[in-house]
Specification:
alpha/beta, 9 helices, single chain, three-stranded antiparallel beta sheet, 279 residues
Length: 279
């Protein structure tokens, strides 16, 4: 583990400055259009990824498979329901149909470092702001971990359909609407999650300062369950708000330390673990 204060920031080299290129509605894996090329992107060497498009070359679905750890691919629709299209311009719903580098990094980190927890009987994983739910779904497929995927109500229809189409025989993977500003929710009474993950949900140009609500949610979970392993992956971008998020997280009442446990200098991706103050 790399134990540092978040205040010792990584150098911001190779940052994406063209936001239009970074946020392109024709792609579903970060920065890739059409046929996926892996020679310049090590993250696409970690996951078998295919994009399915209609006659107008608009993406309708993707398939994903993690290395050789999975015997099959997961097939996921990336098309939002008609009723869900109106809020698209807010950004969050659109982002929920993408697969980001930080999510791929989180999968690798979990598989490499938390295999014992995830493969133990009755282990439970909670993903906040899951979007398509790729990390949680892959963990469930590999380890049969009881998995709870949560995000805004507006993308629940797509998420539930993807779970049903890929895990129709499983009763241990669930999609639940969860607003981080919601004070009372059934999940808030859960005390036995083993791991909580959140992937690439801090980026102010797209999500505003919703990271403040994320800090609140993380504190709420740790208050109920101080032993849960809290892991957050982020990607450094211009004006992302990540330092403000980490500062507020580290100063929050339930957390004694925010530790950077993994980083990729080239792609500016970092994974942090939040340690509970009561341990």
């Amino acid at each position: 583990l790399i134990t540092v204060s978040f205040k010792n920031k990584l150098p911001k080299k190779n940052l994406m400055t063209d936001q239009k290129a970074k946020i392109d509605d024709s792609i579903s894996i970060d920065g890739k259009v059409g046929e996926v090329q892996t020679e310049n992107d090590p993250y696409l060497e970690k996951i078998d990824f295919k994009s399915f498009r209609d006659a107008d070359d608009l993406e309708t679905a993707i398939s994903v498979q993690w290395h050789h750890s999975m015997s099959r691919s997961l097939y996921l629709s990336t098309v939002l329901e008609q009723s869900e299209l109106a809020p698209l311009f807010a950004g969050a719903q659109w982002a929920g149909t993408r697969v980001w580098h930080a999510a791929i990094a989180m999968i690798e980190y979990l598989v490499d470092n938390h295999k014992d927890i995830l493969s133990s009987p009755d282990s439970r994983l909670l993903e906040l702001g899951c979007g398509l739910g790729v990390p949680g779904m892959i963990v469930h497929e590999i380890f049969q971990t009881k998995t709870y995927l949560t995000d805004q109500e507006s993308i629940m229809s797509q998420l539930k359909k993807n779970i049903q189409s890929n895990f129709s025989r499983s009763t241990d993977i669930h999609a639940l609407p969860l607003s981080w500003s919601q004070e009372i929710h059934p999940l808030h009474e859960e005390t036995d999650f083993d791991i909580l993950i959140n992937c690439d949900c801090v980026y102010e140009p797209l999500y505003g300062e919703s990271w403040k609500l994320l800090v609140h949610e993380l504190n709420h979970v740790l208050e109920k369950n101080p032993k849960v392993v809290v892991l957050i992956s982020v990607e450094r971008r211009n004006a992302d708000g990540i330092d403000s998020f980490l500062s507020e997280l580290e100063s929050s009442p339930q957390i004694k330390q925010v530790e950077r446990v993994w980083n990729d200098d080239d792609f500016q991706i970092e994974i942090y673990q939040a340690h509970c103050a009561r341990l």
